[in-house]
Amino acid sequence: MRCALTALLALAAILPCPADDRSIPDLVRALDDDSPEAREEAERQLRALGDRAETALLQGLETGPAEVRARARRLLRAIAVTRALEKLSAAELRRVWTDVEQGEPAVRRRAIRIWVEACGRKPETVESLLELLTLDIGGPAGSAACEALNLLCAPRMTGALEMKASGRTFRQGEPLEDLIIDLLGKAGRMSDAAAEVVRGVAVLEHNEVRAESHLTQLRRYCQWAAVAWRMDDAAGTVSIELPAEALAVWRPWWDGVKRDRLALMDMGLVAIPARDSLTDDEVRPWLELLSSADPRHARVARRVLRDLGEEQAAQLIRLSRRPDSPAALREFGERLGLRTLGWLTFETGMQSERRIRVAAGDASRARELIPGASCWHLTIPGGQREVGYAFIGATWKEGAYHRIDLSGKTPPVRVAEPGWRAILSPDATSLFTYHDDIPDSLAVVDLASGRRTPIRVTASSRPEWSSRAGKFCVVNWKERVVHFRDLADPTFAASADVGGPVWDGWSPDGAHYAVNRLLEKGAAPGVGGRRQIELIDPATGERRAVIGPVESTTLGRPAWSPDGRTVAAGWLEQEAGAAGTIAAVALHNVAAGTTRVERSPVAEMQGHSRDGQIRWSPEGDIVIWSAGERGSARALTLATGAWRDANPGTFGSRWIPGTEWIVDAREGDLVIFRAFSAGGFNLTESAEEEHSVQWHPPER
Question: pTM of this prediction?
Answer without folding.
Answer: 0.75
